[in-house]
Amino acid sequence: MIVAGLALCHLLLAAAPAGADAGAGAGQDAFSGAVEVRRFSFEADEDRDFDDFPDDWRRRKGPDFPAYVPAAIDRGRGFDGERSLRFDSNGAQAAMYAPPIHVDALHSYVFRGRIGTQLLEHDAAAVSVSFLNHKRQRIARLLGPPVTGTHDGWVEVRIGPAAPPPATRFIVIGCHLLRGKRLSIRGAAWFDDLWLGRLPQLAIEDRYASHFVTPGEAVRIATRASGLEAGHAFRLKLQVRDEDGLPIESQVVDLDLDADRAADSDAPRDRELRTEWRLEPREHGHYRVRATLERDGVEILEQRTAFVALDFIEQNGRGEFGWSIAGDPREMSPRELAAIAAQSGINWLKFPLWPTARIDDPVAAVRTAELLELLAHRRIRTVGLLDAPPPELREKFARDWTGISEVFTLSPDFWRGSLEAVIARYSSNVRYWQLGGESDFSFNGMQRLPETLATVKREFDRIGQDTRIGVPWSWDVPLPNEAALPRTFLAFNSRDALSPDELADNLRRTKGVGPPRWVSLRALPSGEHGDDERGADLVRQMVAAKVGGAEAIFFAETIDDERGLLRRNGAPGALFLPWRTTATALQGAELLGSLHLPGGSTNHVFSNGGEVLIVVWADEPGFERTYLGENVGVTDMWGRREAAEFDEKARRHVIPVGPLPRILRNCSAEIIRWQLAVRFEQGRAESSTGDYPDAIVGINPFSQGVGGEVRLSLPPEWQARPDRWTIQAAAGEEFRLPVYLTLPPNATLGVDFATIDFEIVADRPYRFRVHRPYQVGLGDMGIAVVDRVLDDGRLEIEQVITNDIEPIEVLDLRCSLFVPGRKRQTLIVTKLGRGQDRKFFHVPDGKALDGQGLWIRAEQIGGNRVLNYKWRVGDGRE
Fold first, then answer.
1. C-alpha–C-alpha distance, residues 14 and 633, integer Å
2. Residue 102: which of 174, 201, 171, 199 has the closest Cα?
3. Cross-strand partners of 728
4. Which helix (H) or strand (E) holds 703?
5. From CA 676, how far away is CA 697, in angstroms rounded?
6. Are 489 and 472 in contact (CB under 8 A)?
7. In this structure, what are the phi and psi dihedrals at residue 687, rounded to the nearest 5 degrees?
8. Banded model confidence at residue 31, pLDDT cuts 50, 70, 90
């Protein structure tokens, strides 16, 4: 099998060949546009001294690379010829390096090689590409995907395209036998057809100003192409697409290398050319930019980036939303990352601080200190993420360590030295520290957890001030007692994205049980779901976390090209705007409740700084018709805004709803609070017919007195006495409107809806409608139905009646099945005590009834209880 590889050093990946992903090696003949620089095949002309060792190659030596591991040219096996380079597994690792290859900074480079393996159970074979400076010191390395197991043929591995760092002068290809967690003393690996090629470089300018613009601002896209060889015709194609993938603008630029060289007779043969494309201002949204380079009419390179058009935030408030950063985002400067964070609606940022303690990388400490100062200036609090101990500390543990808890469960004497400098350096800006990365659950279930965290906190407080300590926690593990973990937080996480419903259930289950809950969210994978679906799911997760009362809400994989909000170069990903739109609307907001909308859409109402807003969505596309205020706007999850459509005749807004959440902004605080407060005093009736006393109650949220009329509309055949009232209420005064409700004999068991129309005058006239549920049945009796078509064609209807009346009441019931156009069927339920009774009806020609509405009515014999159940045939049937 092939195991995903890891780039050991940060390296800027240049443009990928057309049709392929950078470094993936996907696509047919993906490297066909590259020019060969060097190739190693280990044939006879590469072993001129006949010692079975490739000429000018160097074998790595040292305690971890013993000479007893066999490594030599195999004359009996080759991919393209008769020979290859072979390593035999013998309980240790080995590495061999090709002679340095001179390169330049104008080109990007690609590598392709072949690996064969046999019986590699624990070890793995891999190739590397190292970039050296003029002193032949390694400044970066890319490691290809390790290959293990047994392969009958040869496995192709690819690396790049990669743009070398500016100081690069040489490239070295390495062949490696990597040691696994357990020793292997058998197996072999072969390397052959090691090929290095070069391509021109194509880059799109990546900086904050090129990724984030205001809707009224012109967009500037700058590109750079270098390594363009004379004698070829080069053309640059640029295209911009919106978030729906639709092309909206394009440009083609002929790169005339000869004309450029004529203007400068001293120009090198392969100089770089720069272009700038200015676009007209774009409306709110996320836009993708694609640049392709053609050579002689054939696409050889592709580069992509993105920008967003948004309204900039001048000042962050206090809120729960945050980002988690894994690793050092070296492709963004501290100022760029801080500026992006300030526009993302966050007030928290988890950042790895332990690696900055390395004395051999003082630049990292300076960059980090600058970032923390910039974040603090923008009122973004930093959480020190302690997930990667220094190598000298990590190497003292077994290779299969369980997580960061192994460090902190030891005496502070063991880890104090490596953390003192970190705490002292950043304590002025960092009070919160998380022990372990987002998926490090090594503290979960630890018996001495309170004692361990108390010891850590004492050490941190000795240097810092009033620190808060937190650990990652799995939703599946019981929560520790809050009293045993004072001033501690739990960072709840899962290895895969939870559905919004699962997240909501977990928050309900853990509310008020343990320490403060910090929730980490993950996005759906991009390869399996479209951007709309992923964005909608993320917004619903954010709302679920907010409604569930999470004390902090983080995105777990912020910088990730596939699942993150940002790409490594700072370009906004497809989910940046859904996150930002929701976070800026809800940061610090107060949950007011939910409205009963006529279409049944899911919604949550929030108050934020005096503004009342509603997040709304529905499983199926449709419209909600209700009055929300005078200046209501609709914002989609991409940040696009429009005024809500208003039906002047009906005096209601017409709001489109569907699976993609929308935010209704600037709703009238008084009208919404009035609607939330109105309810039936009882709101439920027994399952028997008759009159039921009730009342409509509410409160006047206006800052002045109101007067007007109220009208009640009920489901068909229900009756209300009275159904109209005159209302007068002072500011903040409660009102109560008595009513008698009469249920008809065919009232269906369950929830039905009444509408209450208000026509009032406060500062101006208002007319609006409130929808309120009414429960028929007290939950002490129930009826359920399952229908199925039998093999003989009959429709079988299974009726289940449940009796949970307290105190126990024994019932006799007459059950009637009503089928349109057919004779009524009747069954008798005899002496049903507590429990269930199951009966079956059968109707001929069941398929003809599919989709038709049927009705079962169960009447108490000698009593007033009536159960009605109406449904359509086939509903819920698989």
1. 42
2. 171
3. 707
4. none
5. 11
6. no
7. -80, 10
8. confident
The predicted-structure confidence for 621-664, as pLDDT tens digits, reads as follows: 999 999 999 999 999 999 999 999 999 999 999 999 999 999 99
How many degrees, rounded to 5, is the angle at CA 545 between CA 543 and CA 551? Answer: 130
Distance CA 304, CA 206 (A): 11
Dist CA 637 CA 585 (whole Å) = 11
Here the tokens at position 43 are 């044939």
Classify strands 811-818 and 825-832 as parallel, antiparallel or unpaired.
antiparallel
**Residue ranges of the alpha helices (H) in 350-397?**
362-377, 391-394
Token look-up 């050319």 returns 273
Strand-pair category, 602-608 with 690-699? unpaired
Q: How does strand 488-493 pair with strand 468-474?
A: parallel
| Among 722, 727, 729, residue whose Cα is nearest residue 708 | 727
Give the span between the Cα atoms of 378 and 290, in whole angstroms: 33
pLDDT > 50? residue 4: no
Beta bridge partners of 157: 113
What is the separation of C-alpha 36 from the centre of its chain, rounded to a whole number of angstroms? 41
Residue 52 carries which DSSP code?
S
CA distances from 826 to 442, 813, 829, 840, 844 (A): 63, 10, 10, 10, 15
For residues 646 and 651, give the distance between their C-alpha atoms in angstroms, rounded to a whole number. 7
**Digit-coded pLDDT (tens) for 176-191:** 999 876 767 789 999 9
How far is the CA of 610 from the CAs of 426, 589, 606, 627, 761, in angstroms? 36, 10, 10, 19, 22
CA 449 to chain centre: 30
Give exposure, 244-276, as e/b (b: 16+ Cβ within 10 Å): eeeeebeeebebebeeeeeeeeeeeeeebbeee
Nearest-CA neighbor of 112 among 42, 184, 173, 166?
173
CA pseudo-torsion sign 799, 833, 688, 686: negative
Please report the pLDDT score of residue 386 as a whole number. 94
Q: Give the separation between CA 109 and CA 76, rounded to whole angstroms.
A: 31
Torsion angle defined by CA atoms of residues 162, 166, 169 and 171, in that order, rounded to the nearest 10 degrees: -20
Query: How many CB atoms within 10 Å of residue 449?
Result: 18
Sheet of 679-680, strands arranged across: 679-680, 690-699, 734-743, 719-721
CA angle 150, 153, 154 (to 5 degrees): 95
Half-sphere exposure of 166 (CA within 13 A, CB side): 0
- The CA distance from 446 to 405, in Å, is 9
Residues facing 547 on adjacent strands: none
Please state, in angstroms and rounded to a whole number, the distance separating the CA atoms of residues 842 and 386: 67
Per DSSP (E only), the strands in 136-246 are 138-143, 147-149, 155-162, 170-178, 188-204, 212-213, 219-226, 234-241
Has residue 279 got a pLDDT over 50?
yes
SS3 state of residue 414:
helix
What pLDDT is stored for residue 24 in this prediction?
32
CA distances from 92 to 66, 175, 189, 330 (A): 7, 15, 13, 34
User: The tokens 């699962």 sit on which residue?
Assistant: 502
Nearest to 204 by CA among 223, 220, 219, 225: 223
- Euclidean distance between CA atoms 393 and 607, whole angstroms: 49
Q: Scanning the structure block, which residue is given the tokens 């109650």? A: 697
Please state, in angstroms and rounded to a whole number, the distance separating the CA atoms of residues 329 and 367.
10
DSSP state letters, 274-286: EEEEEEPP--SEE
Amino acid identity, residue 480? Answer: P
In what helix (H) or strand (E) does residue 340 lie, and over which residues does it extend? helix 334-342
Residue 5 near residue 14 (C-beta atoms within 8 A):
no
Rounded to the nearest 5 degrees, what angle is found at the Cα of 789, between the Cα atoms of 783 and 793? 135
Q: Determine the pLDDT at residue 558.
A: 96
